[in-house]
Design a protein that fits this description.
The complex is a heterodimer of chains A (461) and B (450).
Chain A lengths: L1 H4 L2 E2 L6 H10 L4 E5 L3 H15 L5 E3 L4 H6 L2 H15 L3 E5 L2 H5 L4 H15 L6 E5 L8 H16 L10 H6 L14 E6 L6 H13 L2 E5 L3 H5 L18 H5 L6 E5 L7 H8 L2 E5 L4 H16 L5 H21 L3 E5 L2 H13 L3 E7 L13 E4 L2 H9 L7 E4 L4 H7 L3 E3 L17 H26 L1
Parallel strand pairs in A: 2-3, 2-4, 4-5, 6-7, 6-8, 8-9, 10-11, 10-13, 11-12, 13-14
Chain B lengths: L15 H5 L19 H9 L5 E6 L2 H5 L20 E2 L4 H6 L2 H15 L3 E6 L1 H5 L4 H12 L3 E4 L8 H16 L14 E7 L5 H11 L3 E7 L4 H5 L6 E5 L5 H11 L3 E4 L4 H14 L3 H29 L3 E5 L4 H11 L3 E6 L5 H10 L6 E3 L4 H10 L4 E4 L4 H6 L4 E3 L10 H16 L3 H8 L1
Parallel strand pairs in B: 1-2, 1-3, 3-4, 5-6, 5-7, 7-8, 9-10, 9-12, 10-11, 12-13
Helix pairs in contact in B: 2-8, 5-7, 8-11, 9-18, 12-13, 13-18, 14-15
Classes of the chains: A alpha/beta (461), B alpha/beta (450).
């Protein structure tokens, strides 16, 4: 449908450079530099500031007419040096943009030159850099996010194949224990989560892993960096919290990789290759069935039993399902979100018995979800509105981001706001939608919206 | 290739900033590694997108629109309003190879058929500008085919910043929209004015309009908050242009003076004294004794009413110290409003101010004590606030977290502001908001726990 229109009307999509920026914001003491026109950085910064309600350290190389035509390498170099001198971060994540890529300049070469220059000067020993190519006319948000993660691993993960301490080696061969391959009390996991996770989702997952005795290195860690906390030092010009570069360097020395999220599925092979570690993938960790599977996995790799508090949370989720299912009977849900929320939310809501009627998403990578939706397509919010309004769809609840507010309001359907951007809500960093507890939160929130509409209808009768 | 921005846009005889400099550059260029504001596209979109019955189509990769739309806070009322829509051709790699003019055309035709707008603005961006797409040609062709004005806006971001974009927007309005239609005779009165640069943030236009009509002054066209294509088309019939808080759009006012003989004045509606002055200056421009008399009388009674309303706030606010960090015109116009409330402005940001703005600051600075703050980087701001013992920071949203993370009370006075601060009602809102913020217990609670 989309291709025939030749225009995006209220886009759901965002660009690859934005995906990369967000990954870099999940690194500790970081600043992001976008190589492009000042607008590229400004637009992203504005949205991110409104979404997170935090200072967002995104800067621009301010490529102008001359640089755009004659080459922008001097702009990139000057940008990095100015930031390093002015702000003194330990990490600068650099992205390209549509503008800096379109004339075919070899930005990667400039980046390598720059690294050399900084090293030779000796003044920037505490500064680490990573670069990811994100031409905005190619790919989408998810690709930018994935490529930035890979760039971090490629840049920092030390290649030390002799030192690999795979979790499976440990399990298969007990004598590895003796040479320190793995201490059962100190399993270390590289954890890759999708952007659909709220800051609270990141933090809850971290707690869960730690409760199983697993030390997570989250790449990126949007939990400790973007949860919204008042730093001891007050205002900071860099990120406050996030993945430590030192931990990234040792990522290959950990015991396993855990990748969560449909959008990150294609990370499995490259992450496995770069780290050389066993890699476990979960399309989502939402709903009763999938969370059970995840706990089973954690029990296996940690050789520990599920702690009581999580068993209790599972019982709470079961009760939440039973209590709320009445409100979902015969109700039609329409979701316009990126692939990960589309997957995890529809998983939970279908378990509790709602009809998952319409799904509109940002890319074509949704094949595995086709059975769960009556209509599933790539598209914009305008198309989403058309589908909601078409005869026979009778949608009761919409799930989307702030950009769908106007559409939902015009049609008169309640909207559960999740995803990105959420600029007309506050506290969404504290929402929690995964695992047992988060799934219960989701069904309660959705049921309350449906209930309020029911009450309104009753009054009108 | 349409890379060149009109040389004229860099040349602003009414801008003293510009006269002093030898080379004709846009007022300010960004430095690599900075985090200065938006690009020309941002600036053009801010000015034009409030025109509510036109479609606004950004021709570029998805990031130029998709990463940040639906965020302006201009209010828009009326049957035909596409203000909440964001549209883009979202060009991809294929389009770069095969060209995307055709896609752009088809996309616009689809949207026009669906929404039936009164006009279309096509915004060019960096990538298609570099690959040499002819959006001017597309616009010409579609204007004929669709029978509505289709306006090309050469707003590629590498040409310059927001300010330049504002000017580019003014230029296309002048060239493609203004003067293209005559108004119905019955909407004209003896005193017709246009406002230029008023975007109806939080419904501020509605307050200004009310104050104008109380004085018998007819707001013929508002450029551009809540505007329709038609009202801008016939704006050339006004007797006076009032430029509000926008240095960049003085360019448009000057062009309209040259072509249509409409004089212009620059006014601010922030604060009681400013609003009074604006009303009086407007009346004086019409050189009509009866009107001037009426306005003077109105001012007298309004002043009494408003003074009474702000009294309780003023009592508390008198002597409180403010650091003001905002752009251009607001660097002085808000000083007047804060003086009305009895507050003491200790410093004001002048990074985006022109020489004329700076002279205006001096006018409001009775004791010559106001520091003109050129470097508003966050660290500097915090230091200044602490050194000068400011009670509150009034600034734009980007400095909100700088302030509150440092436990400094804050009020947003830019486009994210939570209520309207202009005109007579606005000064009461402003006083009340500052009063409430300064009385919030939260900073003390946190300071004690910290």
């Amino acid at each position: 449908m989309e291709n025939l229109k030749n225009i995006e009307i209220n886009p759901l999509k965002t660009s690859s450079s934005l995906g990369a920026v967000i990954v870099f914001l999940g690194i500790k003491n970081a600043v992001v530099l976008m190589h492009g026109s000042q607008g590229c950085a400004s637009f992203d910064k504005v949205t991110l500031t409104k979404h997170y309600r935090e200072n967002i350290p995104v800067y621009t190389t301010a490529l102008n007419e001359l640089g755009a035509i004659l080459g922008g390498s001097s702009y990139l170099k000057a940008g990095v040096k100015n930031i390093a001198d002015k702000i003194n971060p330990t990490f600068i994540g650099i992205t390209s943009t549509g503008l800096s890529e379109v004339n075919g300049e070899d930005i990667h070469a400039t980046f390598n030159e720059l690294k050399k220059e900084l090293k030779e000067s000796g003044d920037y020993d505490n500064l680490s850099l990573a670069y990811v190519s994100t031409p905005d006319y190619d790919g989408n948000f998810e690709e930018g996010y994935k490529n930035a993660i890979l760039s971090l691993l490629q840049t920092f993960c030390i290649d030390d194949k002799n030192n690999i301490r795979n979790i499976s080696d440990y399990k298969n061969n007990d004598k590895n224990k003796d040479n320190g391959a793995k201490d059962v009390n100190n399993v270390r996991a590289n954890v890759f989560c999708p952007f659909s996770f709220t800051a609270m989702d990141f933090l809850e997952l971290r707690d869960l892993l730690e409760d199983f005795g697993i030390t997570p290195v989250m790449i990126p860690d949007l939990g400790t960096s973007m949860d919204g906390h008042l730093d001891e030092n007050g205002y900071l010009q860099t990120t406050s919290g996030g993945t430590d570069i030192e931990d990234l360097k040792k990522a290959g020395l950990n015991n396993l990789n855990i990748i969560i999220g449909s959008s990150l599925k294609s990370l499995i092979a490259p992450v496995k290759k770069i780290t050389g570690l066993d890699t476990y993938y979960f399309s989502n960790v939402s709903g009763l069935k999938n969370t059970d599977l995840f706990f089973k996995f954690l029990e296996e790799i940690s050789l520990r039993k599920t702690p009581e508090r999580y068993k209790r949370q599972k019982r709470q989720l079961m009760d939440a399902y039973l209590d709320t299912h009445f409100y979902f009977l015969g109700k039609n849900i329409a979701i316009a979100e990126g692939i990960d929320i589309l997957d995890s939310f529809s998983e939970v809501l279908s378990e509790v018995g709602a009809n998952i009627k319409i799904g509109v998403t940002t890319s074509k990578a949704y094949e595995n979800l086709k059975n769960r939706f009556e209509i599933l397509t790539e598209g914009d919010i305008d198309l989403f509105g058309e589908l909601i309004e078409s005869d026979g769809n009778e949608i009761d609840l919409v799930i989307s981001n702030s950009n769908a507010e106007y559409t939902a309001e015009k049609i008169g359907v309640p909207i559960l706001k999740a995803g990105f951007p959420l600029i007309d809500r506050i506290g969404h960093n504290f929402k929690h939608y995964i695992l047992y507890k988060g799934s219960a939160n989701l069904v309660y929130e959705a049921a309350n919206l449906l209930m309020s509409v029911n009450e309104k209808l009753m009054k009108e009768v | 290739m349409q890379l060149k921005v009109k040389e004229e846009l860099f040349d602003e005889p009414t801008c003293e900033h510009n006269i002093q400099k030898k080379e004709k550059k846009a007022c300010k260029t960004a430095v690599p590694g900075s985090s200065t504001g938006g690009c020309a596209l941002d600036g053009a979109y801010i000015v034009l997108s409030p025109i509510r019955d036109a479609l606004h189509v950004v021709h570029g990769p998805i990031n130029c629109l998709g990463n940040s739309y639906n965020q302006r806070t201009s209010e828009s009322k009326g049957n035909e309003t596409f203000y909440m829509y964001g549209m883009t051709s979202s060009i991809n790699e294929n389009d770069l190879i095969f060209g995307s003019e055709d896609k752009l055309k088809k996309g616009i035709i689809y949207a026009v058929n669906k929404f039936n707008p009164k006009g279309v603005f096509i915004y060019n961006t960096c990538v298609p500008a570099l690959t040499g797409e002819d959006i001017g040609g597309v616009a010409r062709e579609l204007t004929e085919k669709l029978n509505i004005p289709v306006v090309p806006v050469q707003s590629q971001g590498f040409s310059g910043g927001k300010n330049l974009g504002n000017k580019i927007a003014g230029d296309v309005l002048f060239e493609y929209v203004i003067g293209k239609k005559e108004p119905n005779i019955d909407i004209l009165t003896d005193y017709n004015i246009n406002l230029i640069g008023e975007y109806n943030i939080k419904g501020e236009l509605f307050l200004i309009k009310k104050a104008l009509s109380d004085n018998g002054i007819n707001l013929l066209s508002n450029i551009t908050g809540n505007a329709t294509m038609e009202e801008i088309m016939y704006s050339h019939k006004a007797g006076l242009n009032v430029v509000v808080c926008s240095k960049a759009l003085v360019y448009l006012a000057r062009k309209m003076e040259e072509k249509y003989g409409i004089p212009f004045i620059e006014e601010s509606f922030f604060g009681l004294s400013s609003t009074n002055n604006a009303m009086l200056h407007i009346a004086e421009s019409f050189k009509d004794a009866k009107l001037i008399e009426k306005v003077k009388k109105n001012i007298e009674s309004k002043t009494k009413i408003i003074r009474k309303e702000i009294e309780p706030y003023k009592k508390f606010l008198t002597g409180k110290r403010v650091l003001l960090y905002t752009g251009g015109v607001k660097s002085w116009s808000l000083i007047s409003a804060l003086n009305d409330l009895g507050m003491k402005v200790i410093a004001t940001g002048v990074k985006k101010s022109t020489e004329e703005d700076k002279n205006r600051i001096k006018e409001f600075d009775a004791n010559g004590n106001i520091i003109m703050l050129d470097n508003g980087n966050p660290v500097n701001l915090i230091k200044m606030i602490k050194d000068e013992q400011a009670d509150i920071l009034l600034a734009g949203g980007r400095n909100q977290y700088t302030a509150i993370k440092s436990l400094i009370p804050f009020l947003d006075v830019n486009q994210e502001r939570s209520s309207s601060y202009t005109s007579y009602e606005g000064i009461v809102h402003l006083g009340r908001q500052i009063y409430l913020e300064l009385n919030s217990p939260v900073y003390d609670v946190i300071r004690k726990a910290n």
